[in-house]
Amino acid sequence: MESDSDLTMDDLGHPNGSPAHSGSHGNLASAADYDYLIKFLALGDSAVGKTCFLHQYIDKEYKPSFASTVGVDFREKRLVHRVPGADGVVGRSHRIHLQLWDTAGQERFRSLTTAFFRDAMGFILLFDLTNEQSFLNIRNWLTQLQTHAYCENPDIILCGNKADLEDQRKVSEERAREIAEKHGLPYFETSAATGQNVAKVVECLLDMVMLRMEQCVDKTQRPFAQNGKRLHNGEMDEYDGSSKCAC
Ligand code: GDP
Ligand code: MG
């Protein structure tokens, strides 16, 4: 076990997944074999390391030379997630089908990629610790999220990536934590190259999103459904509610 979330990985490795496979159950899963379809989206300026980060999470390796992402792409993974309960008690476990959406940071793809914000339940917002501008642009990305995400306060984790390049660092941990705190976001310093905190970020976001969904379900006493929505007598309700980081 490598984390609080007790990730039992069954990597479905689906490189170059097409958005056409998204939506309900895709061609890899049937309704019966998972409890939740969870969609996360990585965003941030070009070259901050979004593609390498997701590749490191899925394949546990660093591939330094990716071509720029064109539009959107996604990777998938199966895992069992245990929501940490109060007082360290292990909560219920859920079978998760996780889709990790990768977006292009370039302006010319903006309208395409923001269209995908609406569908995601959690966001991994990255900047490059060695690139001041990518840090300053965090504010713009947060505005984009407020406009295009499913609600005004979606679950977001802020990542200062390329932490392995300590000698080239332009943004101090203190400055980054300050902005994270100001916006109420958990902050992690990550490295897609060494893997530092990469899995932790995804697990923390899962905790936040699952907690939000549990609260929704508890509130309504409705049975679970896929795609982050609750099913009741055949009808679908949007998932919504408030969340708190459990990590
Ligand atoms: P994206 O445009 O945000 O998807 O960025 P990429 O994942 O394509 O990465 C852009 C460049 O940064 C590539 O040359 C990567 O090898 C490099 N890179 C990404 N993450 C890291 C990291 O954590 N450490 C270091 N040293 N380089 C990284
Ligand atoms: Mg990319």
From TrEMBL:
GO terms for molecular function: G protein activity; GTP binding. It comes from the Eukaryota. It is found in: Late endosome; Membrane. One of its GO terms (cellular component) is late endosome. Its EC number is 3.6.5.2. It is a lipid-anchor. Pfam families: Ras. Residues 1-24, 228-247 are annotated as: Disordered. Keywords: Acetylation, Disulfide bond, Endosome, GTP-binding, Hydrolase, Lipoprotein, Membrane, Methylation, Nucleotide-binding, Prenylation. Gene3D superfamilies: P-loop containing nucleotide triphosphate hydrolases (3.40.50.300). PANTHER family: LD44762P (PTHR47980). This is small monomeric GTPase. It comes from Crassostrea virginica (Eastern oyster).
